[in-house]
Design goal:
- There is one protein chain.
- The chain has two domains: about 75-240, no CATH class; about 245-345, no CATH class.
- About 25% of the residues lie in helices and about 10% in strands.
- The chain has a five-stranded antiparallel β-sheet with strand order 4-3-6-7-8. The protein has a three-stranded antiparallel β-sheet with strand order 1-2-5.
- The chain has helices at about 75-85, 105-115, 135-140, 160-170, 175-185, 190-195, 210-215, 225-255, 340-345, and strands spanning about 255-260, 260-265, 280-285, 295-300, 305, 310-320, 320-330, 335.
- It is elongated and about 70 Å long.
- The chain is of the alpha+beta class.
- It contains nine helices and eight strands.
- About 35% of the residues are buried.
Length: about 350
C-alpha cells in the first residue's frame, strides 16, 4: 500500500463486510450479452469448414478486419479494460462498450455485488424472471433495499441512485448518499471532472467540496464509463481495508496499561510512508504545541510507552483526502471511530430513510 501519493491508500477499517473481488462469471450472466440479457452466440467456423452449429461454410480468403474500439480514446479506457478483464462489466453483442450510455440498475448491481463479495441469497419475487435474478437475491439477503430506491432492473440510473446503492452496501442506509460517497472517496467519476474542470479558485472540481456539489447533480445520468471508474475506486479501497483491518486489530491487541503508562507496538508491516504528513499512528500529549513538535510519530514495528493522559491517533486517507480517524482517549484502550461518529451525529448526512 502506498501512502501520501495521488493514489494514497486508506489506513484503518470502517464498518463494512470485507470480501475479495472474485474473478469469474456471476451466475446466470453472460458477459457477451446484449444489455445483460443473454443472446445467442454466433456460430464459429471449425477447421473442417463447418460451423459449430454443424452447417457448412465457405472459407474466406481474407482476414477479417477488427472493428475499432468505441472507447479507445475515452477518459475511462483503462477502467473499462479493468472491468472487462475482471468480468464486472461486458461488451454488447456488437462488440461495443458504449461508455457514455447510462448504466442500468441491473448492470450496476451485478458488478457491485461482486466487488462487495456477496454470495448468499434470499428470494426476491419481483425480479424472479429477470436475467439478474441471482443479483437481486444477493441484494435482498444483504439488505440493500431502501424506500428511496425503486427496484427497476432495466431502468437507467442517476448519480443519486448509484450513490445510494453504494452507501447501502457500506451499511449506512440513513446517510446522505452523495455526501457519504464523496467523503469516502467512493464515487468521484464524472465526465465533467475527468475533462479537467476547475473551480473559480483554480482547484480541481473533484477536490472542491462546494463546487463538486454544484456540478455533480443528483439527477445526472450515471454512465457505464463512470460506473467502471467508481467500481475500481470501491475495489481499490476495499483491498486496503482488508489489509488495514489486520493492522488495526494487531495494534489494538498490543495495548496495555502499566505503572501509569500505556504500552503497545505498531504492526511491522505498515509502510514507512504511512508516518509522513500526519498519516499513520501518533501520540498526542494533552497540551500539543502550536507547531506540533511534541507529537510523537509511532513508526512501523516500533514498541512504545507513552503517558496515559493523552491520545493515540490512527488515521488515513485515500486520493489525498482524510477519510477515517480512530482515536484512543487514554487511559481508555477502546478506540472511537471519530469519522463515523461525525456522520452518525450529523443531521446533514444522517437524514435518509428515517
Amino acid at each position: 500500500m502506498k501512502w501520501v501519493t495521488k493514489t494514497a491508500r486508506m489506513l484503518v477499517v470502517t464498518a463494512l463486510v470485507v470480501g475479495s473481488l472474485g474473478i469469474g462469471g456471476l451466475g446466470g450472466i453472460d458477459p457477451t450479452s446484449e444489455g445483460g440479457v443473454p443472446v445467442a452466440k454466433a456460430a464459429v467456423p471449425s477447421k473442417t469448414g463447418a460451423t459449430s452449429a454443424g452447417k457448412p461454410v465457405t472459407a474466406s480468403a481474407t482476414k477479417p478486419v477488427a472493428k475499432p474500439s468505441d472507447y479507445s480514446q475515452h477518459w475511462a479506457k483503462d477502467w473499462i479494460d479493468w472491468s472487462i478483464n475482471n468480468k464486472l462489466m461486458w461488451k454488447y453483442a456488437d462488440g461495443t462498450f458504449r461508455p457514455d450510455e447510462t448504466v442500468t440498475q441491473a448492470q450496476f448491481l451485478s458488478a457491485l455485488v461482486k466487488v462487495q463479495g456477496l454470495k448468499e441469497k434470499s428470494p426476491h419475487p419481483p425480479t424472479a424472471k429477470h436475467w439478474a435474478k441471482d443479483v437481486y437475491e444477493m441484494v435482498a439477503k444483504a439488505g440493500w433495499f431502501t424506500p428511496d430506491i425503486k427496484v427497476n432492473p432495466d431502468g437507467r440510473i442517476t448519480r443519486y441512485e448509484a450513490a445510494a446503492w453504494i452507501t447501502n452496501a457500506w451499511g449506512h442506509k440513513t446517510y446522505d448518499p452523495l455526501q457519504f460517497t464523496y467523503k469516502r472517496n467512493l464515487m468521484e467519476a464524472s465526465y465533467k471532472f475527468q475533462r479537467g474542470l476547475y473551480s473559480s479558485g483554480n482547484r480541481k472540481a473533484s477536490s472542491d467540496y462546494n463546487y463538486y456539489f454544484k456540478m455533480a447533480l443528483p439527477g445526472d445520468k450515471f454512465t457505464r464509463g463512470e460506473a467502471v471508474h467508481t467500481l475500481f475506486l470501491i475495489n481499490d479501497i476495499r483491498k486496503d481495508l482488508i489489509e488495514a483491518q489486520n493492522w488495526y486489530l494487531e495494534f489494538q491487541k498490543s495495548l496495555y496499561v502499566k505503572s501509569g503508562k500505556v504500552y503497545g507496538k505498531v504492526p511491522n508491516n505498515i509502510p514507512k510512508e504511512a508516518s509522513k504528513n500526519g498519516v499513520g499512528v501518533s501520540f498526542h500529549p494533552v497540551n500539543v504545541k502550536p507547531d506540533g513538535s511534541n507529537i510523537l510519530v509511532l513508526n512501523s514495528g516500533q514498541a512504545f510507552s507513552v503517558p496515559s493522559n493523552g491520545k493515540i491517533i490512527m488515521q488515513g486517507g485515500h486520493l489525498g483526502r482524510p477519510t477515517v480517524l480512530f482515536v484512543w482517549n487514554l487511559p481508555n484502550l477502546q478506540a472511537i471511530d471519530e469519522q463515523n461518529r461525525v456522520y452518525s451525529n450529523s443531521n446533514i448526512w444522517n437524514n435518509r430513510n428515517k
